[in-house]
Design goal:
This protein is an all-beta fold. The protein is built from no helices and eight strands.
C-alpha cells in the first residue's frame, strides 16, 4: 500500500518533508498484515520556512492506494480506511 500524507500550508513558502536523500525522496516502512489497531508504522516530519523552520505544521492522509496483483491495478481506498496520521505529531498508525 502507498500512503500519501499532505502538509498544509497557509503562508508564502511551502513546507517540506524531512526525508532521506535520494531519488523520489520517499519514506518506506513495513507493518504486519495482522498488526493491531493503532500500531505505529512511521513518523513523518516537515518544516515550514515561514515559521523559522520549527513552526507548527499540520499533517493529514491525502490518499491510500492498494496494488492488486491479479489485475495489475492500483485502487484508491477511502481516506482513513487503513491508516491515520496524527495532525500534529506526524505519527502514522494502522
Amino acid at each position: 500500500m502507498r500512503v500519501r500524507v499532505r502538509v498544509s500550508d497557509v503562508d508564502d513558502n511551502s513546507p517540506s518533508f524531512a526525508l532521506p536523500p535520494g531519488p523520489g525522496a520517499n519514506l518506506t516502512a513495513g507493518v504486519r498484515v495482522n498488526a493491531p489497531l493503532y500500531t505505529a508504522v512511521a513518523r513523518v516530519r516537515a518544516s515550514d520556512p515561514d515559521r523559522g523552520g520549527s513552526g507548527p505544521v499540520h499533517y493529514r492522509v491525502h490518499n491510500v492506494t492498494y496494488y492488486r496483483d491479479r489485475s495489475g491495478t492500483w485502487e484508491i481506498l477511502d481516506e482513513g480506511a487503513a491508516f491515520a496520521v496524527d495532525a500534529e505529531s506526524g505519527l502514522i498508525q494502522v
